[in-house]
Amino acid sequence: MTGGRKQKIRIARSQDPQPRRSAPPAPGQAPAADPGYFVPRPAALPGRLDNLRALTKPGVRGFPEVDAAQALLVQTMRKDRVRGEVLDLSAMGGLTGSLGGVTLRAVEGSAAALSVLEAAGLQAHAAVPGDVLTGRWPERPRTVALVLAGDRGNAYAQAQVAWAHACTPPGGTLYLAGDRDKGFDRYVRAAGNAFGTGETVARDGGMRVARLIRRPGPTPPFPEAEGYEAFGVKVVGLPGVFSASRPDKATTLMLEHLSALELRGQAVLDLGCGAGLIGAWAAARGAAVTLVDGDLQSVRSSEATLRASGVEGEVLHSDVDAALGERTFDVVLTNPPFHVGRGVVLDVAREFIAAAARRLRPGGTLYLVANDPLPYELPMGKVGPVREAVRQGGFKVLSATRPG
Ligand SMILES: C[S@@+](CC[C@H](N)C(=O)[O-])C[C@H]1O[C@@H](n2cnc3c(N)ncnc32)[C@H](O)[C@@H]1O
Predict the structure, then answer these.
(1) What is the DSSP secondary-structure string of 45-113?
(2) d(CA 22, ligand 1 centre) in Å
(3) Pick among 3.40.50.150, 3.90.1150.10, 3.10.180.10, 3.30.1700.10: CATH of 226-401
(4) Compositional bias (Basic residues) spans (predicted)?
(5) Which atom of ligand 1 is closest in space to residue 250's alpha carbon?
(6) Distances from the Cα of 135 to the Cα of 127, 131, 139, 321, angstroms
(7) Can you tell me which atom of ligand 1 is nearest the CA of 338?
(8) Do the bridges between strand 84-88 and strand 41-42 make them parallel or antiparallel, or are there none, so unpaired?
(9) How do the domains of the chain map onto residue ranges?
(10) Would the CB of 240 count as within 6 Å of ligand 1?
(11) pLDDT tens digits, residue range 63-108?
(12) Residue nearest to ligand 1 atom 10, measured at CA
């Protein structure tokens, strides 16, 4: 993942940073074995949230801890003695639901988070900003909670604020959390204009929580989709989706490099499809394509891209390959993610490669593009011999073919 600009990459290994509050193994005792990518486990909580609980797994924001903004949000709600039904529009690992006296209505767009919410016995609802929730819960609850994903850009945060407004009844309260360094003050001002009143009530490091009471009034407009045309397809980029307004430089390098690849009649997997450029490109070249993304907004974006491009394909909301059943492929194409929230985390990218190894038919090939320094050659060796096809502009395209 590149976001189109040069960046310094500091790589955190999956077992580091250690959860801040986890007890070290006793002398002579082996450290706990890694339970594996898909297994939900208790999230490490800061001491001030003692007696609360949440699950997590790789791919959930904040892993292996709880997201710092959500931690402050829940701490603030506990101080305010919030009780009754709470609609949490960014439920992550279900921390809000462990507040005493709270009945959680959990909403999430992340397939990884939905899997841990399910493991916690919470019947979460998969939705994105703008979705109407009254079909699922006809009465709007008087308390709504939301963590702004400032790292997903201005349009997404605006859509989140508009959604929170639409979901809060007049007289109801919104607890809004976010990161000062990701535009929180700006979004609170926008939310304050829409809600009529509200102020920041808690601060911890860069994290902030505002409490807003909704007065009657219109919901602000939702931002429009962006998009572009490239490689013979029409991409529809919904707010918050990776490279929504222009093709990513790394993806561009990979598609240029693969321009002579014969795909007609091939089963192709676009793993981590974002707005769907790669999958639509492969479909336009005659492949039978499956696109997957763990982010529901990206799934919606890819569906729109296939429609706008006049090509067919299957788009699945899936934590890596969890929703793929028995499907196998001749070609896997990916520009894997290495950010979940703030830090550089490679657990998800490594699982992308492991999934390619599981899903490729004998003789099938994984093509992967990444920033130069990212160490994907070793895990890709499990697929087959690794080739560096091209290295240019800070990126490299690697391939590995499963022995036939
Ligand atoms: C670097 S972007 C690439 C998007 C698109 N393929 C492109 O080239 O423009 C990586 C994508 O992986 C998705 N992703 C992140 N974690 C995932 C997970 N656990 N399972 C499936 N997809 C995930 C992100 O939502 C994002 O769309």
Answers:
(1) --GGGTT---EE-TTSTTTTB--HHHHHHHHHHHHTT--EEEEETT-TTTGGGGSTTEEEEEEE-BHHH
(2) 30
(3) 3.40.50.150
(4) 1-11
(5) 8
(6) 12, 10, 9, 29
(7) 1
(8) unpaired
(9) 41-214, 226-401
(10) no
(11) 999 999 999 999 999 999 999 999 999 999 999 999 999 999 999 9
(12) 337
The CB of 337 under 6 Å from ligand 1? The reply is yes
Q: Which of 57, 316, 321, 335 to mutate to test the pocket of ligand 1 (most atoms within 8 A of CB)?
A: 335
DSSP string, 168-204: SPTT-EEEEEEEGGGTHHHHHHHHHHHHEEEEEEEEE
- Expressed in angstroms, the distance from the first to the final Cα of the chain is 30
CATH class as words, domain 41-214: alpha beta
Which has more pLDDT, 338 or 180? 180
Binding site membership of 272 for ligand 1 (Cβ less than 6 Å): yes
Of 139, 186, 199, 200, nearest to 167 by C-alpha is: 139
349 lines ligand 1 (CB under 6 A): no
320 lines ligand 1 (CB under 6 A): yes
For residue 290, the surrounding DSSP H or E stretch is strand 288-293
